Amino acid sequence: MAVDAEKGRYMKPEGSRTWEYLVCLTCTIMSTVVGLVQGWNSPAIVALMMPDSPIPIIASDASTLIAVISVGFVISTPLSMYLIEKIGRRKVMLMSALPMIVGWGLITVATNIWILYTARLLNGVAVGLFLNPLSIYMGEIASPCLRGAGLTINILSFNAGILLGYVIVPLLSLSMSSAIFMSITVAFLIMFYFMPESPYYLAMKGNIEDTEAVLEKLRGKTDVSDELEVVLEAIKSKSSQRTGGLTELLTVRTNRRAFIINNILICSMHFGGFFTMIAFVQLIFQSVTSVFSDRTVAIVLGVVQLTSVLITAFVVDRLGRKPLIMVSGVMVATANLVIAVFFYMKDFLYMDMSSYSLVPFIATIVLMFANNCGAISLHITVQSEIFATEIKALATCLGGILGAVFHIISAKTYILMAVTWGYGPMPAFLSYFVTVVICTVVTLRLMPETKGKTFVQIQKELDN
């Protein structure tokens, strides 16, 4: 038990959630930085491809700058999943700040493309080190009534970071904006140093006194005996469970079906136009004559993303998962088809589309909004619901690696088709249309509705 001297230090009789709020707030700082990593791409690539760029790059360099982030993520994902259980969730999240700081620092002094590659690789490593333990840490730190809100706020912060990247990078030089982003990361490192470790991890390591002290701190009261008992029981139950391997993931019917569903959602995320728009929106709209500049379009899309995440948070437990996947799938597919047709008429039929320049703009808003309401937001929820406990860590790790590989492929193939081969955006968005249609139909066919159902019920439906 915690030493008596510690009793009463953080407590009120009715309890206080001050430390829970502080933990969540501190995590949102780094979630914002992760969003900045993505939001940096589009305006930075446009600036680097300008004739007066201090570091001139070509189209293939641009796609590599996007793809190398995912390479870093692939490197750090298995490492982070190992370290989470060895040194703790908090230490891994603290570690994530170091490559992020070095990455932003390299961009501030970069003089050639290879320094930029190295910087973005380190940014990707940092993203993996932070995101992989984040949901585990938040789930183990927060009270049950705050867990969903904590995750939603971090998703909002990620989208806010993308929006800030769209706004700040064009206004300042790449060096100045990167210095600002580096300072934000330093602020996270300093603040998060004072945050507590997960009580579940401490209990897993046998540090019962520290576990109780952390619970007292987080809940703001001295009597945490009931929750301490729950934590110890959960650790005991977890230690008695068999850890599933790759064979069990692929051969057990329910696990295999859940794995297929998860991977289809990941495919829809990365080949549905969402990440292409985040990375290349300004490059895409540079060729469209419009009342809006490409920078304005990017900022509007950032606002749309924030709005859609808020809406999804309110409706996901009211409407269910499958209705959202169906509606968002139809909207995303339609938006991709409209964009493809617009650029086909412009780039292949050589029609004057200046009078219809609002069409791709509106379609892009629909695409981003619907993607966020569908595969992007629901993927995390569905992933947490459909996997058996013993194989969840492995399935999540493999899903993260697969998503990173898909991200590399989508970034490289878009630039290859649109710029290197000179076909413009049409082929890519036509392929996104086909992919989303197939993924939506297959997902609806394979996935059971998980809203309001217990884990046992979901597993039974997966086995049917």
From TrEMBL:
Residue stretches spanning the membrane: 21-42, 62-84, 96-115, 121-139, 151-169, 175-195, 259-285, 297-316, 323-345, 357-381, 393-417, 429-447
Predominant location: membrane
GO molecular function list: transmembrane transporter activity
Record keywords, A-Z: Cell membrane, Membrane, Sugar transport, Transmembrane, Transmembrane helix, Transport
Major facilitator superfamily (MFS) profile domain mapped to chain residues: 19-451
Pfam families: Sugar_tr
Record flagged with keyword Membrane: yes
GO cellular component: plasma membrane
Membrane topology field: Multi-pass membrane protein
Tagged with keyword Lyase: no
Location of the protein in the cell: Cell membrane
PANTHER family membership: MAJOR FACILITATOR SUPERFAMILY (MFS) PROFILE DOMAIN-CONTAINING PROTEIN, PTHR48021
Name this polypeptide is given: Sugar transporter ERD6-like 4
Organism: Harpegnathos saltator
